[in-house]
Every structure is written in C-alpha cells, then in structure tokens.
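Progress note, sequence design subtask.
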C-alpha cells in the first residue's frame, strides 16, 4: 500500500489494515480548491497535518465543504518536496490512545503544498489571494515565526532585508503575508480573516503586529500606498481573530513506523531535513485536542463548529488560552522539559514516574497556577489540569520527548511563567515572593542552558534562537563552583523581553539565583535540589 491518490484505489487493502479512508472525492476537492480557494494555511508541519487539516477532512467527509486547504511552507522547503509531493499532500494520521491502541486515518484535505520562498510558489499564492472566494489565512509557524525583532528589540536581518527590498520577493513570513495581502488589496480588497492558530498568548495580536509593522515600514519607504495600510488595519476588511490550540504532537516515532510497515504500508520512514525538521508521511499525536477561535470572519468561513471547534468571542478565547498556556499545561510541560533533559529522560511519560518531577508540576499547576487561572466556562481549569497530569502526560504510548518540548524555550518563558508572576504582582492579596515552584523551574532552565547534565556530562541544548546570546551571558559559570554564578544572572533576570517583566523588580532575583547556585553545586545537585524543595 502506497500513500497517494493512486495507492488509495486499493481500498480493500487499506480497510483491512484498519485505516479510515477519505469519503470525499480527492480530485474534485483539488479542482474546487484551484477554482475557488477558501483556506490557505502557513506552516505545513505536523500539528497542521493531523489537527487543522483533519478538521477540514471532517467537513469534506460530511459534505459541509467542497474545497480543501492550500498549505504554505516558509521555513523548510524539504517538507513540501520530500513529504507533500510524493504523497499527493496526504497524511496518514495516527492517534495514540492511552490503552496502547492506535487509530489510523488518511487525511486528504490538503490540495497542495507550496514553498513561499520559491518564485513560482509566491506567484501561485498571489493568484490565490486575488480570488474573492478566499475566506481565511491561518498559521502554525510557532511564536518565533511572527517576530521581526530580537531580544534587544532590534530588527532581525531577514526582517530588515524585507523592509528594505519591499513586497516583490519577501522571505520573512510576515513579509510574505503583507505582500499577499497587498495583492488582495490591489485585486479589489475582498475581506479576509487572518487567523493565528499558534500556541502563544494573544496570538492574533502578535500576528497583526508583525504584518502591520512590515506594511507600515513599506509605507514609510513609499513602497505601498497609504490606502493599503488603511485597508489592512480595518478590522471589517482584514480581521485577526485570536485562538487557543491544544494538541500534543511529538516527532514521528520509530515504533509507529514499524507498526505501519508491518501492516504493509510502504514508504513510512521519517526524515530529518537540513533545517532539523523531523517529519514523516505519517503524523503521530495524542487523541485529545482543543481549538477555540474568535468568530470574526468578514468574508465568511467554513462551518468549523461542525468539526468540533469552539467558535466564540475574544474574551472567551483569551480566557481559555490564558488558562492553558499560562497555568494549566504549558508551564508544566516546560518544567518537565528542562529538568527531564538534565536528568537524562528521553520520554515525557517516563518523567511522570519521577516523584520529584510530578510534585514540581503539581505545585506549578495546582498550587501556584490554579489560584490565578482564568475560568473560560467552556472548559474547567481544574479538570483540564487533571486530564494533563493523570492522562495526557503519563500516556506511555506517546513518544514525546523533553528535548522536543525544550525547543525555543526562550520564546515561551515570558508567557508560560511570566504571566503568572505578573498576576501575583498585580494581586494585592498575593506577591511573587509567594512562588517557589515557578522560580525553581526558571532556575532549572538557566541551569539547562549550561549544556551539562546532572552527571556532569556534556548535554545537547535544543534549538532556540536565543541560545548563543544566553550562553554567552552565562559563560564562566562552572559546575561545582557556585560562586562563579555571582552577578552573572542579574542582567538576564532583569530583562523584560526574556521574562515578560523584570524578575529582579518582582523580588525573585535572589530566590532564582539561590536555586541556580544549588543546582550547579556539583554532579547530582539537580536531583538533590529537587528533593530538598519538593519532598
């Protein structure tokens, strides 16, 4: 069995292997998407392929949609060339169940994959954006994909080049989007919703800020008309809805590949691209998933509520996102990630058998996070944490790794920890000084950045755009010599770009530095420190 349109003609073989097949006509879907595109998505990676594309698959299967999704990759062209093209943009979606079973379904709702950085790809997208039928542009490009500036507040080289060169051939995702929206404006200015589905706080505002900053910079240089910027900033024409997304999607697992191969499905081997993207023709993920979207679509939208999406108002989205990202899941994940790496764990589920680490995340979630968690009403904060701690993280069949979760941590800490610290600082009945587990998690992250595990051995640090800068700031600190940390952390802890606020001004500098010095006391100090404060 081969995963592509021709391979799907052997329906009996796929069904015998327990694989659910598309109920819609794939060729008709592709033709409709070409003529009347409705949905373009930026970020052609794993969570999109199994979750977002899965939503449209459900609508297609139910007869609630005719067109599919056009997937755009701005970061890694190999994803399209080596995964999308050979498989007609289809994905074998594998849900990993807590009882060890797997659900298998072929998602065939993506009409095609496009590489925006290639001239032919950008031109194809310009054609799509001229179509009035286009209703929405969505994103899963990670939080760093929106950033035009670095930790110092200075424009990145890519963003600077796009601003100077204008909309003809942009490279940064925000430049590409601004250029495509300019194309739409020039073609008559049909309305459109621009929807971030990334796992970050106020994602719609971050996306809006990135696109409009690029457009205004072009305006300042006389490269675009003022009318375009006015259209872009008119929420009745171009809306930027907020959303909350939640689904744990690990890298492709070898065990899953072997199961699929044993069923007779060919060509399932994962690849690692030159840009270190881990991807395969299949995507494995947990079954639970949540998507909450602010319902502001000025040109209409697919009936996403029929696919299980919560369509609601901004306040509810904000509360749901804040609940999940700042208190009930993401802070726990990050704490497990950095300490798991230090302690030599290779699976999140194995960390959930570690008494100290379980106690750490329970304190972060229940003791320190829950008292300031927002209650969106559509989901219960306590029930959400309960599901995370008792079902999702411990799932032994989820091959998620602390090393994956530790990627880009510098981009996450202002929200995952900083927001709760801000809540304590703003509450007259509380104080950041009341916190202990969150400061211990932050100290653990700084200890992780040294690139030395708890045995004193060299340890790889996961990809993160700020690692070189952060490690330079920590240079000179030595395991076994806590005094070498004196004065080294203050500049980092005082940086509001890094933590969302100055942790020195919040009164946590001394506490975090103290924890950090204990964590570097020598081999075994990480475990000893956890035992000291969590037993």
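Output:
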């Amino acid at each position: 069995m081969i995963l592509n349109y021709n391979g799907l003609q052997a329906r009996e073989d796929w069904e015998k292997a327990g694989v659910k097949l598309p109920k819609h006509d794939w060729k008709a879907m592709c033709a409709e998407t070409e003529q009347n595109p409705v949905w373009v998505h930026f970020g052609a990676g794993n969570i999109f392929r199994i979750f977002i594309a899965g939503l449209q698959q459900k609508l297609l299967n139910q007869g609630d949609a005719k067109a599919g999704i056009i997937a755009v990759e701005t970061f890694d062209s190999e994803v399209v060339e080596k995964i999308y093209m050979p498989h007609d943009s289809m994905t074998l979606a594998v849900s990993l169940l807590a009882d060890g079973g797997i659900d298998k379904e072929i998602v065939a709702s993506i009409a095609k994959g496009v590489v925006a950085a290639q001239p032919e790809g950008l031109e194809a997208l310009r054609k799509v954006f001229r179509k009035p039928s286009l209703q929405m542009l969505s994103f899963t490009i990670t939080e760093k994909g929106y950033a035009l500036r670095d930790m110092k507040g200075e424009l990145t080289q890519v963003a600077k080049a796009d601003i100077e060169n204008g909309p003809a051939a942009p490279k940064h995702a925000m430049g590409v989007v601004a250029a495509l929206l300019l194309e739409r404006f020039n073609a008559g200015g049909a309305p459109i919703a621009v929807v971030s589905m990334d796992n970050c706080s106020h994602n719609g505002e971050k996306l809006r800020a990135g696109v409009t900053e690029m457009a205004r910079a072009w305006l300042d240089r006389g490269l675009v008309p003022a009318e375009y910027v006015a259209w872009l900033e008119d929420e009745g024409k171009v809306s930027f809805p907020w959303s909350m997304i939640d689904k744990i999607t690990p890298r492709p697992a070898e065990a899953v590949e072997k199961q699929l191969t044993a069923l007779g499905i060919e060509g399932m081997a994962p690849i690692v691209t030159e840009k270190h993207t881990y991807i395969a023709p299949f995507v494995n993920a947990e079954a639970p998933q949540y998507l909450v979207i602010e319902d502001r679509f000025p040109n209409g939208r697919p009936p996403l509520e029929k696919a299980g999406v919560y369509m609601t108002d901004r306040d509810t989205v904000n509360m749901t996102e804040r609940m999940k990202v700042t208190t009930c899941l993401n802070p726990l994940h990050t704490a497990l990630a950095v300490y798991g790496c230090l302690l030599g764990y290779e699976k999140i589920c194995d960390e959930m058998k570690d008494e100290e680490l379980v106690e750490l995340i329970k304190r972060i979630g229940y003791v320190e996070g829950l008292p300031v968690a927002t209650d969106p009403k559509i989901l219960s904060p306590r029930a959400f944490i309960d599901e995370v701690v008792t079902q999702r993280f411990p799932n032994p069949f989820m091959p998620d790794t602390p090393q994956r979760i530790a990627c880009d941590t510098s981009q996450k800490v202002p929200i995952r920890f900083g927001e709760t610290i801000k809540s304590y600082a703003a509450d007259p009945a509380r104080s950041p000084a009341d916190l202990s587990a969150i400061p211990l998690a932050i100290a653990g992250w700084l200890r992780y950045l040294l690139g030395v595990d708890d045995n004193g051995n060299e340890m790889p640090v996961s990809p993160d755009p700020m690692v070189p800068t952060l490690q330079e700031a920590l240079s000179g600190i030595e395991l076994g010599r806590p005094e070498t940390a004196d004065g080294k952390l203050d500049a980092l802890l005082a940086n509001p770009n890094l933590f969302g606020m100055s942790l020195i001004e919040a009164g946590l500098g001394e506490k975090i530095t103290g924890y950090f010095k204990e964590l570097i006391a020598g081999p075994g100090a990480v475990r000893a420190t956890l035992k000291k404060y969590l037993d």
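DSSP finds 24 helices and 15 strands in the chain. Work on this subtask will continue into the next period as scheduled.
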